[in-house]
Amino acid sequence: MRICVIGGANADIIATSFSAFVPCDSNPGTVRLMAGGVGRNIAHNLALLGDEVVFLTLFGGDDFGRFTAESCSKAHIDISLCDYAAPGACSCFLSINDCDGEMVGGVADMAAADGITPEWLAPKMEQLGDVDAFVADANIPVETLAYLVDHTDKPLYVDAVSGAKAIKIKEAMAMSVKKHFFTLKCNQIENTILADLQGIDRRFVSLGADGLDVVEDDTKHHFPALSCHVVNATGAGDALMAGIIHAAPEATIVEAAHIGLLCAKHNIESPDTVNPHWTRDCGTMTCDYDNDHVNQKLRF
């Protein structure tokens, strides 16, 4: 498929202490710099799955922004329609983790994403050519989400990102004329905020280790998580969303759920936010679900 992803792209600075984190002191540990952002991670996963991905974003107007842009190019994501924000407009996330990998604090500077306005996006959309689906994350402004709901002529997938940002989807739907899009992906906290949201064909609710709930035609279906060895759960939701999208709009919810869960499993078993070895390893992934569509979608 040819897929257009609109959303955030940032540099992730992940600091992890070797032992229990001590506040107000210097803690020995490791510091890693990685490319991140929900939209960028989804785009990266889709590219690894073999889809043709066009990414629309404003990269930070600094060295971190250039680093993130280079990561997209290396991942074979088309960023030819992207721009850089003004100098000083950053797109960076700093996380301080305890020795067990749990975050003890973080700071997100996503000023660059504020520039993804309808006025910026409209001419880019005109240059896109034909695509099979659109994807948006809730890092972008409310007005832009509303614009996408009203101006996309192909299935639109929306990721709620976080509880704080999920409210943007409600506001965008209230602002929208069409008030309808194809698929929402959220977690339990985000789903509580968006529980009364109407106009969605499919709602995928991630339950973490408890699996996935899918609502279609007011009927809820539950899919258990696949057994896996947890290495790093960060990015699992982005991999889940990529699998749901990769299944294609014509897939049944059963097929989309199982492809999404397989992608999440593969991601959790990697130390990276996006498992870079997808194409090498995915052919060995197995589960107790036998479906030709699923097998074909994950075959390389």
The whole-number mean of residue pLDDT values reads: 90
- Number of helices, counting only DSSP H or I runs of 4 residues or more: 10
What is the tally of beta strands? 14
The neighbouring-strand order within the major sheet is: 4-1-9-10-11-12-13-14
Instruction: Supply the helix-strand structural class.
Output: alpha/beta
Helix content: 25-40%
Which residues form runs of ≥5 with pLDDT under 50?
280-289
Using the CA coordinates, give the radius of gyration. Answer: 18 Å
Outline the biggest β-sheet: 8 strands, mixed
CATH top level class name: Alpha Beta
Provide the succession of SSEs.
EEEHEEHEEEHEHEHEHEEEHHHH
CATH superfamily: Ribokinase
Short description, anyone?
The strands form three sheets. The chain has an eight-stranded mixed sheet with strand order 4-1-9-10-11-12-13-14, sandwiched between helices. The protein has a four-stranded mixed sheet with strand order 3-2-7-8. The protein is an alpha/beta fold and 300 residues long.
Your description of this structure?
The protein is an alpha/beta fold and 300 residues long. The chain has one domain: Ribokinase (UDP-N-acetylmuramoyl-L-alanine:D-glutamate ligase), CATH 3.40.1190. The protein is built from 10 helices and 14 strands. The protein has an 8-stranded mixed sheet with strand order 4-1-9-10-11-12-13-14, with helices on both faces. Strands 3-2-7-8 form a 4-stranded mixed sheet. Helix 6 links the parallel strand 11 and strand 12. The chain is globular, with a radius of gyration of 18 Å.
